[in-house]
Amino acid sequence: MTAASAFLQYVISGATVGSTYGLAALGFTVIFNTTEIINFAQGEFVMLGGILAVFALQWGGIPLPVAVPLAVLGVTAIGVLVDRLTIRPVRGRSPITLIIITIGVSILLRGGAMLLFGKDTFSLPSFSPGGPIHLGGATLLPQSLWVGVITLLTVLAMKFFFERTLSGKAMLACACDRKAASLMGIHVDSMVTLSFAFSALVGALGGVILAPITLTSYDVGILLGLKGFAACILGGLGNPFGAVVGGVILGILESLGAGLISSGYKDAVAFVILLGLLFLRPQGLLGASSSERV
Amino acid sequence: MPGSGNPAPFDGTGARTRFRPGAHITGLLAFAAGMGLLPFALPNEYYLTVLIVAGFYSILVIGLNLLMGYAGQVSLGHAAFYGISAYTTGILTGTYHWPVPAGIAAGLLLVTGVAYLIGVPTLKLRGHYLAMGTLGFGIIVFIVFNEATSVTGGPSGFSGIPKLSVGGKVFSSDREYYYVVWGTVFLLFALAQNLVRSRMGRALRAIHTSETAAAVLGVDTGRYKTFVFVLSAFYAAVAGALYAHYVTFVSPGSFGFHTSVLLVTMVVLGGMASLWGAVLGALFLTFLPEALRAIENLDILIYGAILILCMMYLPGGLVEGALKGWEALLSLTRRGRGAAADGGGVAR
Amino acid sequence: MRRTVIACGFALAVFVAAAGALAAEPIRIGAIFSVTGPASFLGEPERNTVKMLEEDINQSGGVLGRPVEIIVYDDETDATKALTAFDRLIKKDKVVAVVGPSISGSTLAIVPKVEEAKIPLVSCSAAKKIVDPVKKWVFKTPQSDELAVRKIYQHAKKAGIRKIAIITASDAYGAAGREELKALAPGFGIAVVADEVFGPKDTDMTAQLTKIKGTDAQAIVCWGTNPGPAVIARNRVQLGIGTPLYMSHGVASPKFIELAGAANAEGILLPAGRLISEPQVPAGQPQKKILAAYIKEYETKFKQPVSTFGGYAYDAIMLVVQAMKNGKSADPAAIRDALERIKGYNATTGEFNFSEKDHNGLTEEAFVMVRITKGDWEMLK
Fold first, then answer.
1. What's C354's DSSP letter?
2. Cα angle at B89 between B84 and B94, to 5 degrees?
């Protein structure tokens, strides 16, 4: 295998995994934009997407094309529940309170998944049959194409939503200034719930499209969520497009790191980048220079 | 009540006038006496081990409580400091045969230095940045413990660490170690209490309530936050050193994300901004798995539930719950006696 | 009236005597398994097995006339919890012997305490370090990674393979395997041309496999336990790599084939105990009877296929029980001595022959080379 095709291979694998980081990052961004909360449970939404799809398929005997949307909808409902039960009652409290609550939610969701579904690893069939596609010495799975297409569609849909629809603009208004938005007649609480719903939906989507490639289990949420956050920061916190781009870039960097430097420290790549960004450029690559410094 | 605003950070620090001024010293002495006599009341040696482990956690949680409760910052990677200290002293004394006190000192210094390096840039940013930054840091440290096999022993861990020995005296029995650990807890608790009641403590509370206001009033917020962060890391390092020379074995699994979450849970459960709460939280959550052996599997679920429920309904943790319960009891008896006023105005 | 009183008195006496016998102090054996956590696929069958055995043993009258009580603690795949569990077993439960832990990391963590406490330990984890150098009170049932590596290299050498690439998990099991793979290769005339590592919970190893694809390795040896090796099996097919793939005995369970997908697992070679390919074990083979019996009972009771790992626990308990019977004593020191003298004991893992210098008691004979064919285990001659 030539160096060029090896490089291409790393980029392809990295971009595939990176898309899920990007979708997770998108979820972080949507909630942050509306509420200024960092939802630590975002990674669990990603995990639940994959796991619920597996169980709809295996236990419910539901065919894949139905199981997947069903799982995504299920996680969306969970997202709404999380907002209603744990976030709405404590709105206006200090950031540390909210951070801890979302951590608690994250643990609860993971623990719940562990008890209901067990500690095993599960696999989901690919969305379409077919062997690997060969491309300039590298190989590409059909599922990777699904990943790319779905991610792109999601980003376009989000862009349309935020820029063209009233609800989307209302959500952005909440992020800018909650009180002003409320004064303008926007029902802020509903917008918050909506943001959680979207975030869960997008996260679950990321989980379910990746599960056929990387398998899933109850504890994949922690790392996925964290790397999603790193991607978010990379792309600039608050920028949905940047979040997805950040995710793909992070995935590629991680893959290159594993391939060219050392495979053992692969996970560390994302976190070193995260820390580096926090220290040197917290606004990320595409974000505005608006992170607060005290 | 939910939604009733930020938890008052002053509960339980002795700044209230409900208790007499010297109360905190009597409290401390009673605590020391109680813990000192406890070993003689235990049914078997096993509980000594549990109490020693609870001691490690107490030290960790007191430090973390200073950071979370008083300075209002979250650290989600505190187990990393615990681990770095344990590994450093373990490797220096185990592989390189340094004398134990030197190994411990090196571990403490290293952790302090690393905490300073991490703290300075991240504490300039907002709350959740520190949370995520410390989380990322914790994971990097965990990965290094796992990967640097030639130095750390990798995932299998590192054994053969010598027991604690100071100037020729080796602390090998559980009972001796119990006193060493809880003596340290006592010292560090008194130190923390002193800090909280000092000028720095007041500055910290100001920062917690409103960072901007504190800055306007001339408080050097950056410096104070960094100081508390480094101090809390130092506490974690002390616990790590004690751990290494008791268990004589370290492995990455004990210093990962799960442990960091457990520490945060202990702080929240005991009561943020309450040093007694810190010890209470540590003791409670160390003994809980023992008591609930039957539902061991559920521990992760229980931590999550505790975090959510406490933050929503009982932000002051067990300490607040205990105090409220005490007040409820008092008001019941007051009503019973038909007295018009309780003893002395209660300023909150 | 008098006859009634005497009859009652007699009945009472019998009753008291019987109650006394029934209330005979049970023999307590401790067990530490990773029932939860990443290694739960090891600990759960182990726990199931020992509970099943506890019932069996007590139903057939116990040991030395006393019932047996097996106390199982979960170390949650955490070495420190294993230490606490061990402490609890000897200080609170006062057991006479301990079986487990499931993973090498936990076992190595408790070894110093075992030696200090002078209680025999029969470990269910594989690292060679556990019994090499021999420690007085520590024994183990799984075949050593060293034996597995030898078996693989023997097979590879016969197939004319001189260059291999290794890809190992970064956990204790994988790390131990990696050590053995590198140490023993020169002795078989094999050169290791690539040395890749993956995290035990990683979900994408294409980067590592891409690097291996770029070398001239004639075979790949993967050392880890689920789910990593399953991902590697899939990635290998995905990348179109045709190089033969060897796995370790850590994947000798149906779960591996399920996770990887039968198509991706086709043709993979690994050393395994005879438990999983029991149907193909010839009738005269010394282990056949015990294998068949264990499989039948376990699968009926728990409604899931046996795993090699449950077998390790089965052997550990049976060895302790045998040692007690041989030495006619439930005293820890006596059990230890009797264990060391066991010879020719056929169990699910192999034939155990312990000695003062050998606390594992197995040879390569405990392994057979197996090829995964059409989603099932095919024993190679």
1. -
2. 125
Instruction: Say if the ipTM goes beyond 0.85.
Output: no
Compute the C-alpha angle B13/B19/B21, nearest 5°: 75
Tell me, yes or no, whether C59 and C126 share the same domain. Answer: yes
Residues 57-86 of C with CB under 8 A from B: 74, 76-80, 83-84
- The whole-angstrom separation of Cα C289 and Cα B118 is 62
Residues near A294 by beta carbon (within 8 Å), at least 6 away in sequence: B124, B126, B211, B212, B215, B221, B222
Tens digits of per-residue pLDDT, A237-258?
778 888 899 999 999 998 888 8
pTM: 0.82
CATH code that applies to domain A3-128+141-280: 1.10.3470.10
Torsion from C-alpha of C257, C260, C266, C269, nearest 10 degrees:
-70
Domains: count for chain C: 2
Distance CA A94, CA C326 (A): 68
Q: Do A266 and C199 touch (CB under 8 A)?
A: yes
> Do C194 and C255 sit in the same domain of this protein?
yes
Tell me the residues of chain C between 232 and 271 that have a Cβ less than 8 Å away from chain A.
237-240, 255, 258-259, 261
Do the beta carbons of residue C318 and residue C348 sit within 8 Å?
no
Question: Encoding tokens for residue C128?
Answer: 């060679």
Confidence of residue B14 (pLDDT cuts 50, 70, 90): very low
Residue type, C15: F
Of A9, A120, A267, the CB nearest to C206: A9
Number of Cβ within 10 Å of residue B309's Cβ equals 15
3-state DSSP percent of chain B in helix, strand and coil, to 5: 75, 0, 25
Alpha helices in chain C (DSSP H): 2-22, 40-59, 79-87, 104-117, 145-158, 172-184, 206-213, 228-238, 254-260, 262-265, 288-302, 308-327, 332-340
Q: Using a CB-CB distance cutoff of 8 angstroms, which residues of chain A are in contact with residue C203?
A: 17, 213-215, 220
